[in-house]
Write a structure and sequence with these properties.
The chain is mostly beta strands. Helix content is 5%, strand content 40%. It contains one helix and eleven strands; from the N terminus they run βαββββββββββ. Strand 6 and strand 7 form a beta hairpin.
């Protein structure tokens, strides 16, 4: 996943699109730039199976041997550090309007934004969450 995305879709549309029955996100304003370590909404299944919209901090502490620096991508699914969080009960959807990848332009990198269309319709990245 990229390290910059945004979510400008209205909260009611997020709930309707992903079948959310319980909303704990509070009053969700447009989020034009979401970076690692910031709070952003996810949709996950509660223990009773209902879909819940909640705010979580983006990024998961990495392995101890690498200083536990937060990461946004799991690259080694065979690692014992990640295996507990790869179970279905820790899967979630990360609602997105568009995402950015940086072009290596000089002297400064330039963000290139990608969306499903000019009107930036809602979609989601697959994610994992951790209590």
């Amino acid at each position: 996943m990229c390290n910059l995305y945004n979510l400008v879709t209205p909260q009611a549309e997020i709930r309707a699109s992903f079948g959310v029955l319980v909303d704990h996100a509070g009053n969700l304003p447009p989020l034009p730039g979401i970076f690692p370590d910031q709070r952003a909404p996810i949709v996950r299944a509660a223990e009773n199976g209902e879909r819940v919209l909640e705010m979580f901090r983006w990024g998961i502490p990495g392995p101890k041997q690498f200083g536990e620096h937060p990461v946004t991508n799991v690259r080694n699914v065979k690692s014992p550090h990640w295996r507990p969080w790869l179970k279905p009960e820790y899967r979630c959807l990360v609602p997105v309007s568009s995402f950015s990848e940086y072009a290596d332009t000089k002297p400064k990198k330039t963000p290139n934004w990608f969306a499903l269309g000019e009107d930036r319709p809602l979609f989601a990245f697959a994610g994992i969450w951790r209590p």
